[in-house]
Write a structure and sequence with these properties.
The chain is of the alpha+beta class. It contains eleven helices and six strands. It is rod-shaped.
Length: 300
Amino acid sequence: MTFNDLLRVFWRRKLLIILVTAAVVIPSYIGTQLVSPQYESTATLALTPHGTGANSVLYLSTLDQIVPVYADSATAGSTLRRAQGILGHPLCPVSVEAFKGTGILKVKGRCTDPRRAQLTAAAVSRALIERTHDKANPLGLAGLDLNVINTPELPTVQVFPRTKLTILAALLLGLALGCAAAVLRESLTTKIESAEDLARVAGVPVFAELPSETAVLGMHSAEDLAEHPRLRIVAEAMRDLRTNLLFTDDSIRSIVITSPDGSHGKTTVAFSFAATLARSGTRTILVDADLRRGPTLGSC
């Protein structure tokens, strides 16, 4: 299947693609509206050595081993209990991020209440610093200082759910699933849905496509085909059929219009095509060879 064939498949199955995409996007959007928004506040702490010299050299050589100890201690039970005592009410969920090769720690508090998220980050940072100064059981190394370099701010933008990002991801996923469904539907279908399908299955060329126009049911004369506004598209299709047939073989003298069963529009097509040929100056004889009702003969 070429790229152009694929595009034609997508166009024919556009309704299926739209439905599948909508089936993914709409629940995703509803889900973002039902979930309580989460806010996050961050305190940034820096671990630095006292002065310079031997302490600095030791600090730099063991940095990646020391910083994770402080990061783990920030979420330890003793630190969280101390922070809750400082805050005076339950904490929000806390997470800590350490950056390899640096002495930077980020303490994050996430909650549905932005003010509680800010206070949680501040309380945990303060509790962690107090533990480093604890005389009975100090945290970390004596030659290192832990200080807050960025205090937590009151968050104004929710971090979850991210509605725009969710909708974009759902849209892309829906389009991908819709296109896959369109290709699968196209490969499994046994119906003839286009002129190309008919030509491929029948092994013969398709010379024209005739529109399904209900106004042909009220057609009583050849003049209706030319004068009725809704029949103009039918007349145009008949002219296309005449032109394509004549260009294919200008020696054609007889044409049979048939179908496997009744009420398929054989008489209507035969009459309209005969009128089209006659209008172009071709002497035309129309024979309605209905085996059930008996044949009739007419000339144009």
